[in-house]
TrEMBL record:
Keywords: Coiled coil. This is Regulatory protein, luxR family. The keyword Coiled coil applies. One of its GO terms (molecular function) is DNA binding. The keyword Ligase does not apply. InterPro entries: Sig_transdc_resp-reg_C-effctor (IPR016032), TPR-like_helical_dom_sf (IPR011990), WH-like_DNA-bd_sf (IPR036388). Residues 442-528 form a coiled coil. GO terms for biological process: regulation of DNA-templated transcription. It comes from the Bacteria.
Amino acid sequence: MIKHLIFLWMALIFFSANIYAQKGDLDNLLKQAYAARLKGDYDSNFRLLREAENIDQSNQDPLLLTKLYAELSKQQLILADYNKAKAYAEKSLQIGKQANHTLAKSYGYIAISTYHNYLDIGDQAVSYAQQALKLLDDEPDPSLQSRAYYILYGVYSRWDDVDLCEKYAQLAIAAAKQGNDNEMLSNAYAAYATAMEFRYDRTNQQRYLDSIKIYLHKSAAVYKQAPETVGIRTYSITNINLANFFFKYYPLDQSSTQDSILYYAGIAQHLSQASDKNYTIMGSVNGLLAEVASLQGNDQLAEAYLMDSYIHLTETTAPSYYTLAHVAQGLSDLHRKRGDYEKALFYQKKKEQFTDTIFNETQMLQTKKLEVQYENKKLLEDIQLSAQKARNQKTQNLLLAGICVLLLMSLFLLRNSFKNKTQLQDEKALRLHQEKMDSERNAALQLKMQQQEQARLQAEQQLLLIQKEQMQKEAMADALQIERKNRLLLQLKDKLKKLETEDNKGLVEKVIKEEMRLEETVERSAREFESINPLFFSRLRELSGERLTPLELKHCAYLYLKLNTKEIAAAFYVEPKTIRVSKYRIKQKLRLDKDTDLDDFLQDIG
């Protein structure tokens, strides 16, 4: 028994170690394959990915598997095997969905987006890239986000949408920096340089031309700072772009321009000689070198560069026919310039053959594109049909459930109907009795409230009579005071007349008449106000808590009648300053803050 347990324990340890080793092997193989790709060793890259594919996948990390199939899909795109490329990309997404792993699903969507982007099916590439970005909002991975942004940049650059092209190039730069992905950062800088070239071609503004060179230099600087983290191909293409920049935008007859072209083309040539097996980069390099040699009058050297490209490109199994067509055209032009029309015609015919091949490849690619679009359309229709069937089934289930619920409710109501009939009658009688009692109680309460209201009205009437009597007394006292003042004024008039001179004749009489007329106007307005608005004073007493004096109440009435400070001072025989002090005291008794205007307040309550 003990031996049996020891055997099982050792087997379990061996099995666990084997699983861990396989996981470690897959991760290491993927890292080695990526490193080989950066170095331009594509044979090792292909071999390592094949080894990784052959590892037992039953207990592998789904994230590693999605990375593997995404890389295999890109490999098949390079080999122009689009069916396998699509199958690998779909498998990458399938693994991510089955594992319900956010990052794994994101890798799958990026793989399918890359496939559609390579075939120039932009709408599908955008759709899948956006789905990946939506998932990455929940679980960010800056390196993967930068890839999605770079795909979107590529699509919108082909669609000539300069704004979105620039936007996604900027986003790719920011995400690559955050994720410390130097390979993507170098490509993103080059992408932004392309966006700036679009801007320059449309506006011809110098700042955009300067930006092209700045961002191409930034792309190259990433490699110089950490050469092991940026692909040789990426750095070579950046140098070719720099050489093309000088060739396109600088005067070609200047030696400084030619030197710059030779310098950057030389860097690309040095790096790509060993790794550029399809001679795509070297073809471009030799084309630039041939142009400079031709400008310098060295047609023999120009021919040597072009022939080197022609020979290598025709010997490779999968040449770039675009590059071959340009090389053949260059050779044809060179021989025509020399007067060798036979060779010029030969290479012109070769150029036409390569152009035909490009056309056939384009047709094949277009056919594949249409097949993919048809498959996507059919898949979308199947998804929509399945969704419609699911909705219909759900609707049917809901209707059946509703019918069952209605039947159960009907049975329940029928069962309780007879049982509750007598109870409802008793409740109705009880309710009628209660309503009768409530009605009698409400009638008594209403009568009591009416009596209380009559008592209140009588009290208010008595209060108004008292206030009226008080106002009448005050009015009589004011009248007596006015009469006494008028007599005094007349006496002063007689005495002052004796002192009149020719200069002030009539002035005394005019002042006295004006004073008497002002006072009569004020008193008349006050009496009219009391008769029209008897509740004004009661409202003021209530608001002040019975703290306003009769004189202050009269002051409020004059303010309500919109008399100014001078007129009120004349009515009270005081200085205007005294009236302003009185207004301040009234505001305090009415509990008004300093920002409240007393005149407006009295108008509101009047």
